[in-house]
Amino acid sequence: MKNTTIYDCKIVELKKIHNRAGNITPIENMQDIPFNIKRVYYLYDIPSGEERGGHAHRKLKQLLIAASGGFDVKLDDGRNKKFVHLNRPNIGLMVVPGIWRELNNFSSGAICLVLASENYDEKDYIRKYNEFKKLKNI
Ligand code: T46
User: What is the 3-state secondary structure (H, E, C) of 72-92?
Assistant: First the structure.
């Protein structure tokens, strides 16, 4: 996690299978994304103006998807920052370990679907920005 940068966080275009009845996007372990999915969770019913995130992870890799609506993601490696707007259900944002992330500007009804490489473990979180900078040697 020490040496990762925002440039390691990539947009992933997922398959979109379209027919007249609508679209379907399948995501398979190690085929559509480069890690095994151990956990899935989603953020929803987010009140207007609220922010989520505000932390980094030591080991966890995640793919963030706007399953409905849209929101902004700020990525920060301690030196560089990048802003990504997600609003398409077949577009994911890969977030690698060692990246501070903040999510905001959720549209009404937005759903942030997250595919995660690890089970939930509070010890994997870095929730203080000062500690994050220290771990990044900044
Ligand atoms: C991330 C962003 C995008 C659990 O018990 N299990 C879980 O799998 C998760 C994700 C959370 N929790 C508990 C821990 C806290 O008591 O749910 C509560 C809220 O979690 P947190 O403040 O971490 O929520 P967010 O939305 O700020 O962050 C979450 C993820 O934790 C994080 O990994 O990248 O969504």
Answer: EEEEECCCCEEEEEECCCCEE
